[in-house]
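During the reporting period, our protein records have gained a structure token line. One record among many is quoted in full directly below:
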Amino acid sequence: MTMHPTPHKTALITGASSGIGQALAHHFAQDGYQLVLAARSVAKMQALAHDLQKQFKVQVTVIGADLETDAGAMQLHADMQARGIVLSALVNNAGYGAFGEFKDTALPSELAMMQLNMNAVVVLSKLFLPDLLATRGKILNTASTAAFQPGPYMAVYYATKAFVLSFSEALASELEDTGVTVTALCPGPTASGFQDKAQLGNSALIKGKKLPTSQEVAALGYRAMQRGQRVYIPGFMNWAMAQSMRFTPRNLATKVVKILTRPLA
């Protein structure tokens, strides 16, 4: 059977089973996008797909994808090509962190994090760029306020988000005359499943603090993407902190982050 490209706006959202990715799916669906949800938690995505289809009358495709593996992103692209899906929006949202001193953290976890947070972003952007050029589409990459300075106790995670920010800004510049926009969403700590997976519960960064919700961050990030804004930092204090790093000596900035992120007794 011959597969024909989808005639509607279609968005791929990675890490769509929870948190910011799940919340973003609602905004895309509300705007009439057909959706492709990709993550490892297929059952959660199927429940989300059912809700979105019922509420917004859009087509939602669920694809189980393990983007922590070398071949995961390429396989996701191949699966979508086989279904004849053409993208008009790519959301590289999947990612995770690990809290602790680098000497104590597990190397396999760090390598998988680098694969997911960085390599998958590059591979999916590269493979889907022909679609996005044809549709004058949009890319939304979830970075972090962690992108603006080194991060003791989360050294590899902070470094991966610095990569995402730099890559996003450079790609946005290359594509500025094509109609394709690239937005780096840089939230601060957000109430989501991220903290549990990163084991951040005992960090001064979040312990005892009221955090913005995934829904709040997603709503702001979605609007920034639709505006074509290259870098968006939700929240004035997050924005001010990120700007201050431009004028703060790197060694002092690192000391401040070390204090703010330190484990609490």
Notes: Confidence is low (pLDDT under 50) at residues 1-6. The CA atoms of residues 150 and 159 lie 7 Å apart.
